Every structure is written in C-alpha cells, then in structure tokens.
Amino acid sequence: MSDLETFHAETRAWLEANCPAAMRQPVRGEGDIVWGGRKAQLSPDQKAWLDAMASRGWTVPDWPKDYGGGGLSPEQTKILRQEMARLGCRNPLNSFGISMLGPALLKYGTEEQKKRFLPEIARGEIRWCQGYSEPNAGSDLAGLQTSAEDKGDHFLVNGQKVWTSYADKADWIFCLVRTSKESKHNGISFLLFDMESPGVSTKPILLISGYSPFCETFFDNVEVPKDQLVGELNKGWDVAKYLLGHEREMISGMGLGGGGLGSGGPAALAEEAKRAVGVDADGRLADPLLRAQIALFEVRERAFRAMSEKFMDELKYGKTHPAQPSMMKYYGTELNKARYELVMAAGGSDALEWESEGSEGGTKARAWLRTKANSIEGGTSEIQLNIIAKRILELPGA
Amino acid sequence: MALFLTDEQTMLRDTARQFVNETAPVSHMRSLRDAKEPAGFSRDLWKQFAEMGFTSILIPEDEGGLGLGHVEAGVVLEEIGRNLTPSSFLSTAVGAVTALKTGAADLRQIWFPRIAAGEAVAALAIDEGAKHRPAQTALRAERSGNGFRLTGAKTFVPLGHVADLIVVAARTGGSPGEENGITLFAVEKGAAGLTATPERLADASIAARLQLDGVEVDADAVIGEVDQGWAGLTRILSAGRAGAAAELLGVGGGAMDMTIGYLRERKQFGVPIGSFQALQHRAAHLYSEMEVARAAVLKAQQLLDADDPNAERAALVAKAMAGLAVTLAVQEGVQMHGGIGMTDEYDIGFYMKRGRVLAELFGDANWAADQLARMSGY
Fold this sequence. Notes:
Cofactor (chain A): FAD
Protein name (chain A): Putative acyl-CoA dehydrogenase
Family (chain A): Belongs to the acyl-CoA dehydrogenase family.
GO molecular function (chain A): flavin adenine dinucleotide binding; oxidoreductase activity, acting on the CH-CH group of donors
Pfam families (chain A): Acyl-CoA_dh_1, Acyl-CoA_dh_M, Acyl-CoA_dh_N
Structural class of chain A: alpha+beta
Shape of chain B: globular
Largest sheet of chain A: 4 strands, mixed
Oligomer: heterodimer
CATH topology of the largest domain in chain A: Butyryl-CoA Dehydrogenase, subunit A, domain 3
CATH topology of the largest domain in chain B: Butyryl-CoA Dehydrogenase, subunit A, domain 3
Low-confidence stretches of chain B: none
Number of helices of chain A: 11
C-alpha cells in the first residue's frame, strides 16, 4: 500500500471509531453548528467530537502542527474531507478563526502571534468576529473611519462597526481601523482585541428573518496593546484583502448548501415537492415546471460541486488566480439563493409558516430570507463582478 | 486525483493548441465552407492528426495506440472547438474507438490500425428523430442467414456520408422506448442498401441522413452482445457527451476571448466599451459560467478514465452545463460585438452556429437535466 492508501485506510478507521453517531446526522439548524468560544454550550457528543478532532489537529488539518494543526499534505487533507463527507461527519468546529483569521495570521502574523492565537482557534477556545463594515463603509470598505490613535504603549480605538456577525457571542475581534488620514488605502491597520475590553459594546440588529446574527459594535476609548497589531502599521489593507479572499471561499461553500437546510440536494428538494404536489403515473414530480427548475438547478449544483473541488485543489497547489475566490463567492451565493427559492416553491404554503411546531419555528422561511444576505456579505455580487472584470478579464477602467 | 490537468496533460494541451491553431484555424473552416467542399472536412488534416498521435489517444497501447484517456482526448477537442475545425475526431477517435473497445478483438484489429493511421473516419448513427432519444431506437435488425438485415433510417450522423465505418444502434428485440433489445453494429461504407444523404447544417458542417434498406451484415459485425447493447451505447454516449462538452468549452472559450478582446479595443463615446460596467458585469458573469462548465467537464473526463460508476451522470452534467454556458457565451459574443457580430465576414457568428450544433449533439441541456432528474428519482 502506498503511504496515501495507508493514510486513507487509517483515517477511515479512525473516523468510524471516533465520530459519535449523533455527529453523523445532517445539520438541521444553527443550533447544530459548533462555533466554539468561551460562551459555547456544547452537547456531550459535540464536545467529544471536537476534542477528538482537535487532539489530532484535524479541525485545521492543513495548518502546521506547531500551531495546533494536523500538518497534512494537500492530498491527505482532501482524503480526510472526502472520508468525512462519505461518513456524513459534521464539521467539528466552524469558525471565523479557522476560515478567515487563521490564514491571515499564518501569512502576516509574527511568530509570537501565531503561537499565541492559532492553537486556541484550532481547539475552539476563542470565538472571533470580524470588524470590517461601517455605517459609511460597505462596498467602499476602504472608506472606513473607526480610528486607532497611537498612545505610545497602546492604540486608543474609537468608532463603530456594523454587520458584525455574532459580535454578541464572540470573544475577540479582528478589526480594521484607520491609523492615518493621509491615504485611503495606506492608512488602515489590522488590530486584534478582546471583546471584553472596557469600552466595547454590541447591539444586535433584527433582520428580515426574525433572527439577529449581526450586530452594531461600538468602540469608546478601547485600549489595545501594540503587540496586537497584525502586519505593518498602515498596511492593514493587504491583510484585509487577503482575509477577504478566504472569507469569500468560505461563503462560496454555501453554493453546496453549506451543511444547512436543503443540503440533501435536488433529490431531497424534489421529495419535498412530491409531498406537496404529488407524482404522475411514472412516479415523477407532478408539477413539470417545478421539476424542470429543480433539474436545471441540479445541473448547476453538480457542476459547482466539481468547481469547488477544482478550486480547492488548485488553491492547495498554488495554481489558482488570486481573484478566483470572487468568482466562487459570486457563483456559490447566487446558487444558494436559487436553492432556497426552490425550497420555498417545493414547500408551498407549509414553508410559509413562521412560528408553528410543524415548521420548526419557520425554519425554511427564515433560512430562505437569511440566504438573501449571501450575495451582500463579504462583498456584494456586484463587487465580485467588478473584481473579476478588473483582475481576471483585465477590462479597462474597472 | 487532483481536479486540474497534470503536467503531461498541460504539455499535450500546449502542443495541440499550437498545432491546431497553426494548421486549422477558423480560416480553414471558412475556406472549406466557401469551396462547398463535399466531404465537409480535410482528409489531409486528418492524416496530420494521426501523425501527431491524436487519433490514437484512446486506443489501448497493446493495440497500437497511446493508451491515454478522455482527459487527453478532451484537451484536443477543446482546441478543435476553439478553432472551429471541421473534424471527425469526436465521432472517430472518441465515439467509434469507445464503441470498438466494448466489442470483440476482430473488429478492433480491423479498425484501430486504420484509425491510428488516419486512414479511416467513422460515424455514429444513433438518432432517428430531430431530438436525441436513444432508447427510442426503432431501426430494425432481423436475423438473416449467418448475420442480420438492417432496415430503417437514421439522422444527424456527422460526416456519415463519407465515413468508412458507421456504428449503428439497432433494435433486435423489445420495442422503442425500452433499453433491452438494442444491438450495436459496425456497418461499412458502401454496404448494399445503404444510402447516405449529406445535409449541410447551419454551421457548414455536414451530417448525413441514412436510409438502410435491408443492409446485410455478418454476425461478427455485432459490437458487444446481441440485445444487450444499451450498456455499450451508454458508454459511447457518455464518452460522446464529455467529448462534445470539451469541444463546446473550446467554442465558448474562443467566443469569450474574442469578445473580451473586442471589449478592450472597441471605442465608443471616446472610451473602450469594456470600461462600461453594464458590459463588465455580463462579461464577468459569463466567465463564471464558463469556469463552472470547465470544472464539470474535467470531472466527467476523470470519472470516465477511472471507470467510475458516476461517470454517466457526470457526463450528463458536463454536457448540460457546457451547453448552457456556451450558449450564453456565443449569444453575449454576438451581442457585444454589435453590428459587426452579425456579419458573415467576422468570425464570431461561426461560434454561435457551431455552439448550437454541439449543444444538440447527444442530447441538449434540457434532455440531460431530465435524465439527471430521473436518475435522482424525481
């Protein structure tokens, strides 16, 4: 057996032995997703699965072992992911620390910062949130105004962020701040600080889904130690853009259902629709137009699944265009919105119920509405198209 | 296996790209069309393809071929698509070779060397109506003496009027609509009772209508098993769909490159029209669709090469996705070129025509999506 085949066999055996049965059930809602952090309340199975994976560094399989990772090669990482998918293993830990901050720290952090922050991300001990958007800095993110004043041994941060995902549940924040007004892009710095620091407050924003996953976050004379600056002073935009690429990769995963509702794929959607409209004499979905829409969606979903695999492979081998995450983000989020339009069409009036027990508190309708943010957060679809046009297609004056 | 071309496959692509672009660019197709060349393709070019080794890519090494796979065949097909090169590559080097590989050694020994040498071209005779419905095969093959007698009609047979070998799907049992009872036959050019009528299509390529009036073939003309040809036919069609999808990628990629180039150069209101966001967003959307199609095609090719049970489904996805993406590419191509895009003198219209023909071949996107729905149980 080759080394890879041995790894494959051992991985399969280890997952079968260590992944609790409950952690092989499909994720049904937000409550089934483990984000980690000081305030996390994990079920015994969730905790066992997280600890087992973290002990091998497999919450972040391709990070170096020194920083809490698994030190796996691209081929081994792919095998691990495929085996987890085959067994239906849930992701043991989902976090912005893993998908966004970690890669940025690996590239821009000092050795001391990597040793300090990465292992606790890998173990799910600290939950991070992202301080990027501001009331007047959305698509024009570099127009941000939250200031960090140099006070000798610390920065003094003042200002406001908005659309901070789970700020009220997070322990730390990675935050873009203005450290110079001389230049728009070259006056931004990237800071890390504890959300329990004096002067930090959050206020949840009620969304159309009835949920409040986002907050307004306020900073009133927050003192941040100097060693929590990532990258050079006034060069935070480079870190910010690099991190955005990773954020877009993460969001593009929603194109495949993101482990959420409807991730059973088009066949599950069709089953749902069959319950609502019945079947014809050949056992096919009796609404031929809905069936056609689901079938054409299936084409795109399967094709995008291949695209995701190709993109991840190219990324691991350094073969991808630096702006390709924008394409993935654009396509994946538009696909996910299309998926949830079909979830609603297949569910009919049952899917419209907002509070009933049968609808599990309006799970479908709320998830459908939540997806509408997919093509806004992390840079709108229109911003992604601008980036593709400018950086990949090299169109003029974009 | 990683889902991108290996170094060897990338080298083959570079070789094929240079060779096809130099020997058979779009002007080659245009001149064949203008000359009303009755064969519809160049036999000289086919010989050159053989000399490059292209025609024997899928022929096993121990039978005189290169023993490579559908990824490699797709690499060549994409360049054929990009240059709109009239060629029998898809029918012969992919379709017929795949068909013969499902059959007995004697037929392979006859045809593989001739295909490898560029001496023979082949055609696939599957469709009987205007839409691809392989299970509806009705052309009858009745036992007669030591062999069979074939009676019926076929349509949309690319280069069927000049093909030395025609792979014919016929019904030896069951009724139209059933998968059982289909048998594949190797019919040779000039067989008594075979009439091939060439029809020029919108893209200037030629597909034949075939009439078979009691064409007699020997029992050893059967490819595979009598009545059990559906599995073989499915393999041929999966290979054909992945291949047509690869050629489509070339057509769409060529149209897109041409269009992006035009957006950079064409000036109106004193600026390049590519600086207008209304066009930039459409171009970026098109790029995204083409990228996703490219991934789907490579996935299908790799699964075919691995003999994976999911290959049939992946080939349907590839064909449908490439059809959808390339249809967008050629439509945006003509529209963004404005008036010049409507002229015969300019090449972009050729891409639209070729894309339309390939989108129909071996089942269009709607048909493929319908098949996927059936396979997924709805």
